[in-house]
TrEMBL record:
Residue span of region Disordered: 547-572
Keywords (A to Z) from UniProt: Membrane, Transmembrane, Transmembrane helix
Membrane-spanning residues: 6-24, 53-74
InterPro entries: Aerotolerance_reg_N, Class_I_gatase-like, Double_TM_dom
One of the Pfam families matching this protein, by short name: BatA
Protein name: Aerotolerance regulator N-terminal domain-containing protein
Domain Aerotolerance regulator N-terminal: 1-76
Organism listed in the record: Akkermansia muciniphila
Amino acid sequence: MSFTSPWLLWALFAASIPIIIHLVNRWRHRSVHWAAMEFLLRAARETRGTKKLLHYLILALRVLAVAALVTAFARPLLSSFFGWGSSGLNEVLLVLDRSASMDARPDKTNSLRDAIPPLVESTFAQLGSCRLSLLDSTTGAVTQIPAPEALADLTVSKTTDGGADIPALLQKAIPYLEESGSGKTEIWIASDMQASSWKPDSPLWPSVRQRLDALAIPPAIRIMALRDRPESNRGIRVRQAQVNNGRLVLDLEVLRQGFNPNQPENVPVHLSVDNAAASATLQLAGETTTIKKEIPLPQGKESGFGFVSLPHDDFTRDDLSFFTFAPRPLANILICGPPGEVGKTLSLMSAPPGLPNRKASMPGSTRAAQTKLASQSMVVWYGPPPRAEMEEKLRTFIEEGGLVLFLPDDTAHGTRHPFLGVSWGAMETAPPDEYYRLETWDRERGFLRDGSGQAAIPANRLRAVRRKPLLGKYRTLASWHDGACAVAQVRYGTGSALFLGTLPRYSWSNLADGHLLLPLLQRMADRGAERFSTAISLRVNDPALPQSATDTPVRMDNAQGTHPSGSPADTAGVYRLGAQTYAVNRPWSEDNPDQITDEKLRLLLPGASISSMHSTAETPSLVQEAWKLFLIISLACLLLEAFLCLPRHTAKRPNPATRP
């Protein structure tokens, strides 16, 4: 509980006035012994304890009535959002989630973000003198807010097409709190509680908790949890845009939430290529639908931009997806290892005859391989792990976005020297007449995902009689039937390293049949070649966005009308900077409606106060004045005290003179 006028609480000393009067009345009376009264005193001794209790009760009611009256004049504020003493705040730091999902409209009129300014404004009207600062998820900078009512009109409080990283924001808030010296401060976190923004598995959380507790005056943390979500929603993504035989091929993915997955539906979709509009109808079924859409291109057209859009619903920011397209760049694949059967198999599968835009090369030495790394889409490494200078070169290659596929060497012993923390153990051989069978793999995402129409790659046909177990810390992409890892992935920088547990040699496995190896190599080659494509797809506020000291990005698409606006730092779209055209989209994680639970929040931020807010509230407020309640308490105490002070009713005795 807090108070609008806490200085009036000094008047609580007035509650001692009834006690003082009681004591003064006792002091001014002197006892005089009178023999005639002894009989009456002895008769009253039996009820003395009850009378004392009654007097003390009356005294307590008078004290409570005065205390409740003074408290009412101090205008108390009651809310689960506040703790004791919140009225003594010097500053409130509002950490605002500006991610795309905050623009969801559960009531079809107001977005989640629209609920924040009135909540803050109504709260500050009750708190009195207190400074307000804003730390938003887009700029990551602290802004001083001149008045709470100005919050709704500031650019730094608007929703964007970007994402949010709450633990990273709190880490940025700590240096500000250390340097500001504001005294008693509270951190208010306003968010729609999307798990992708809170990142509960982030390694930053332990450091954040420790540094907050180490502050001279640790701030209280209060969370405005806006958990309202639309009952149903559709979202669309362009996974890939390629030119093939004079046609633009779009790989589309449509997500449905809140619909009956067993009930298909036809949904119109708007297509735009170089701002030339077209339309089509998509047949959707299930929660996720993958569709390949082909659009004829004019003669000689090989590059351009565009977008696809669904009819607007309660969450409009996921109804749009932008893309650029250009001729597919040449995928150079570098095969490194000792000459022999394995190298020939890998080279043939990396660049099959007749497949365009593929070129595989096998340098004769490690030094020759180093000179070619900069122009390679991916590297396939088999045999002993890289060492010394080559190891460092491959690390840099992966960090800058390259892809490397590692296969074990053809020896019985394991490797002692790991690469990116992963190594192979000693060779294992299956029992006679048995095989190691590939049983499970990640069919939702990554290089082994299902193809168009949700058709799975035939990875379960892989059989091995020899394998080497993978050791270290990695993400498992595929597993053998006994649960051991068959394909592992380690992300490093903007690239990845993948590790296989067997060889494409028939004395080891049937990996050379291509059930798993062929799609894996082709997809890795395509992904690696994207680094050299002039068609770039980035995320809003991505650190990799093109920069210029003199030029400003120009919006190219007409998704917002004939005069579109925005910046790639906060708005999705197609932009041109100099001679470079690139598409900017919302992070796909914003399409995931999963929210973090209160139980998980209390583990991340112990002691935080969590209040569930609703964007549909007509008069949103975080606090309510309770002075009427205390006036009622004061009046009730006075009425009860008056009742107890009434003289006791005694039966009227008959007059002896009137007896017959």
